[in-house]
Amino acid sequence: MFTQRSGPGYVDATASVRGLMMLAVLVLCTAGCHKAPTLPAAGETEVTVMQVTQRDTPVDFEFTAQTQSSREVEIRARVDGFLDKRVYTEGQMVHTGQTLFLMDPKPFEATLQTAKGQLAQQQARLYITKANLARVIPLAKQNALSQKDLDDATGNEKEAESAVIAAQGQVRTAELNLSYTTIKSPLNGLSSFAHQQDGSYVTASASGLLTYVYQLDPMWVNFSISENELLRYRAQVDKKQLVFPANNDFEVSVVLADGSLFPSTGHINFTNPAFNTQTGTFLVRASLANPTGSLRPGQFVKARVSGAIRPNAILVPQRAVLQGAKSHFVWVVDSDSKAHERVVETGEWHGDDWFITEGLKPGERVVVDGAIRVVADTPLKITGAPSPASQPAAANVPQSAPQNEPVHLAAQQSDQTVSK
Known about the structure:
Oligomer: single chain
Structural class: alpha+beta
CATH class of the domain at 106-179: Mainly Alpha
CATH superfamily of the domain at 106-179: Helix hairpin bin
Number of strands: 21
Low-confidence stretches: 1-17, 23-40, 400-420
Helix content: 10-25%
Number of helices: 4
Mean pLDDT: 83
CATH architecture of the domain at 106-179: Orthogonal Bundle
CATH topology of the domain at 106-179: Helix Hairpins
Shape: elongated
């Protein structure tokens, strides 16, 4: 028997039990007001399907590349002397024949004057020898002078002629050296900073570098391809899985760092005949017009190579391809709307799609949306075709490529093992 107590610090046990019972009843009533969710039947999985088709698919390949001036010229001093003045604005466009630097001309003017004086002396000597020979010839015919006298006069005249030619060469050399004190740009291009300041003594050796001038139009774009990639391209061409354009005339466009497309396109104009032994890559160079000079040397860009085609290619959306224990597979829908697992061999990505090289035939239906919920040999509820954005792309879509590998004769996406 319980003894009921009252007063501060004590709680009525009967009241507590009654309160707990009322709370439990309230919870049960609340739960009864809501219906439990009904799980869909296993055979009512809603999916969208697409029909497999084959078509020739143009493909683009993107490679990390770097721009290079098509003509990078070192502006050097050609004579030794003091640099008087830089007369161009560093970093500005310069034109062919524009003066860039002026050297102190005074020593070269003095040398030229000396050379001209020596030339005048030799010309005077030649005049005398010619006049002497003119007098000796008739006297020798009259036997008034010996044959030796005639030979000596003739030799002196020839020697004086040679001395004049040598003196003329000295004058020409002095004139050239004087002209080299005015240093001009040999081309239209972008100037670099000055490597020597006014008043510096420069020589025609290594210290004679004054600046650079970079030709901007056309601009070169360099990228590389690995040996493995090149061999893979050749194998795909042999298997008719990849077709290159006639004469390997690929079109190259440039994607800038902000993702915008450079307006001009170009073509591959050089492929190195040898692999780089240090990197194992094969250098490829494209040339494209850069009339406004917006592309600058040294920029990191993406080279997009177009012109290759994958004939009779099969494309399916990436979400339709599932990863099994050992391989990739898709769900193929039969005439009874039942799904069957089909192992496929995947190729490269093409935008949001995947090339399927083995495992599918034209006309078959493949589950796209809802593939992850499909159960084998279970009827499906087909709600329609995938949205247009999910359909295999018909236009060129860039394929990923190794970050440090470009293309020769075309390009193919690099190993997709990680992506797959």
